[in-house]
Design a protein that fits this description.
The chain contains 10 helices and 17 strands. By secondary structure, the protein is of the alpha+beta class.
């Protein structure tokens, strides 16, 4: 098996604006301003969408999820499969915030299991490609009752003011544990690595193309859905501990993220060898070439590459930068 260059996989008609920055990053046609996400190497379906929405399709027309289920060891590796079966334990996206995203949360695995019969929660982390402001974590104590009142009244300013604001720059990362209130600021372009679920609880929806009172609580009602919120306030220092700035290496995320996924950042200056194992690789700058083929395959900025475990150790050469996203090595 060889690494596979993936084309864009951009669910249409999303409830928030974005998309042109992804098109520019990929060097692809602009599909409009309601395609703010590109789901890369996805075996996860878009919640509430049409059948198969969100699932990655390989160049030969096969659905990736079906291929992995048919031969999990070759795709994911023996060690991974012995621990997790045919579950890749990973979803990667490009995300272009054409407007500030709503204040929202994602539940943890326990909540998802109890209330939604889903095997994962949704921890996530962001690798920043274009900077701006993000909003993460409660600044001071609050109660579920107060949150419920703010949601009911759609007091958008009060909801946003609950959160710390963090300025982020290209090369920074932010780890967002499940249950953490957060919102991505307008203009930010990022790579998101996450657990493979599409589970969001929206606390605001004014100005967005969604009926949050109907669709913002995962069908649970807000009284139950808000039980997923982590009400623990964080100091500015504790929020900054979720951020890394300009790190390089095989694992550049803040401590705690490793139980969910890994994200590495590497400069390629000449040759580079990528360790064997299932991965999603994104070229974030420059140009590299994939060895092992004649002629070597050229990977320009914005290229997304799916690496099966059976591809073994992958050699690259050129001058650029890559981000490599992987599932957890164990829990």
């Amino acid at each position: 098996m060889q690494p596979i260059v993936l084309t864009a996989n951009r669910p249409a008609d999303r409830f928030y604006l974005g998309g042109p920055r992804i098109a520019e990053f990929r060097g692809s046609p602009d599909d409009g301003d309601r395609v703010p996400e590109d789901w890369i190497g996805s075996t996860t379906e878009l919640r509430g969408g049409p059948p198969s929405a969100g699932l990655s399709v390989l160049p030969d027309g096969r659905i990736l999820r079906d291929c992995v289920a048919d031969d999990p060891v070759r795709w994911l590796g023996e060690a991974h499969t012995s621990r997790y079966g045919d579950d890749p334990m990973l979803l990667v996206k490009l995300l272009d915030a054409g407007q500030r995203l709503p204040v929202h949360i994602h539940p943890d695995a326990g909540f998802a299991d109890r209330h939604l019969d889903r095997p994962h929660g949704k921890a996530e982390a962001w690798y920043i490609l274009r900077g701006g402001d993000v909003h993460v974590g409660l600044k001071s104590p609050t109660t579920r009752e107060r949150l419920g009142a703010l949601v009911r009244d759609q007091d958008v300013d009060a909801l946003r003011d609950l959160l710390h604001t963090v300025a982020v720059h290209p090369g920074d990362t932010v780890f967002v544990p499940p249950g953490t209130l957060h919102a991505i600021g307008e203009g930010v372009l990022l790579i998101e690595v996450q657990e493979p679920e599409d589970l969001s609880i929206l606390l605001e929806w004014q100005g967005f193309e969604i009926d949050g009172s109907r669709d913002g609580h995962l069908g649970l009602g807000f009284e139950t859905a808000l039980e997923a919120v982590d009400l623990s306030p964080r100091t500015a220092g504790e929020v900054e501990a979720l951020v890394t700035r300009g790190f390089e290496g095989a694992s550049v995320l803040a401590p705690g993220a490793e139980r969910y996924f890994a994200l590495g950042r590497h400069r390629v200056d000449g040759g580079f060898a990528l360790d064997a194992g299932f991965a999603v690789l994104i070229v974030t700058a420059g140009m590299v070439e994939l060895d092992g083929e004649e002629p070597a395959r050229r990977l320009d900025r914005g290229t997304t590459l799916l690496v099966p475990a059976a591809a073994g150790r992958v050699s690259l050469h050129g001058h650029g930068e890559i981000v490599v996203c992987r599932p957890p090595s164990g829990r």
